[in-house]
Design goal:
With 232 residues, this protein is mostly helical. The protein contains 10 helices and 3 strands, in the order E-H-H-H-H-H-H-H-E-E-H-H-H. The chain has a 3-stranded antiparallel beta sheet. A hairpin with a 2-residue loop joins strand 2 and strand 3. Helix 5 crosses helix 7, helix 6 packs antiparallel against helix 9 and helix 8 crosses helix 9. The chain is globular. The C terminus is likely disordered.
Length: 232
């Protein structure tokens, strides 16, 4: 299932979400400018679990956690992540507020990266991408807006259909898939990065999002009059 949009309007302009999307795109354009040295340079700046555990509090290693959240392995990787962030991030920013949302996003990304490192401590494969942080957004969304209708592309054998499905089903299916694949890969190092996907980063980010959104006040609803004004 691939989400295309949601019917869940925001009261405010998601400035931070726009900035996060722009930052990811700009960093990816920087990656493309590296030319033939791209693999070497990305290895230097990206997060590598085995390298991290040698000196976990070394400032450069901590900076690599942040940098890796904005690196991507290709246009498809970038596009898929930004699609999810575009659809679901605005509503979480709307509920948390701009500053809290920015902090929330970075915390989810950091926790996701560390979850991956904990499960794969000896991995020398760079871990890059915004998906861990975005998984946190999805975890928050499924709690705050479970009934929101998500327009979803659904492949059925050789046919493709588009339907509106509640967010709890779309995002619940996504999480179950990550959880099932991640748990099945435990003890098989090669499988834990199968297809370049760090499943436990997704799991860690999703759970972090569910916890942090409550801690940061996401369940406090704005005054009803605010919504009335928006509908005008």
């Amino acid at each position: 299932m691939l989400p295309l949009s949601d019917r869940n309007p925001s009261r405010t302009t998601p400035v931070v979400n726009y900035l996060l999307i722009a930052a990811n795109v700009l960093v990816f354009l920087w990656e493309l400018s590296l030319g033939p040295d791209i693999e070497r340079d990305l290895f230097i700046v990206s997060f590598v679990p085995a390298r991290f555990w040698v000196a976990p509090f070394y400032p450069v290693n901590l900076l690599r956690i942040l940098m890796s959240m904005f690196l991507h392995g290709g246009w498809l990787h970038l596009g898929g992540n930004m699609l999810y962030l575009w659809i679901f991030g605005d509503n979480i920013e709307d509920r948390l507020g701009h500053v809290k949302y920015g902090i929330f996003y970075l915390l989810c990304g950091g926790i996701a990266t560390l979850t991956h490192a904990f499960v794969n401590p000896n991995s020398r494969i760079p871990s890059i991408g915004a998906s861990g942080a975005i998984a946190g957004v999805l975890g928050a969304y499924i709690l705050l807006f479970p009934r929101a209708q998500v327009t979803t592309l659904i492949p059925i054998f050789v046919f493709i259909t588009i339907r509106e499905i509640p967010a709890v089903i779309v995002l619940g299916f996504w999480f179950v898939l990550q959880l099932f694949t991640g748990v099945a890969s435990v003890g098989i190092p090669e499988a834990q990065n199968a297809g370049g996907v760090a499943y436990f980063a997704h799991i860690g980010g999703f759970v972090a999002g569910m916890i942090l959104v409550g801690i940061m006040g996401g369940f406090r609803r704005p005054p009803p009059q605010t919504y009335t004004d928006f509908r005008r």
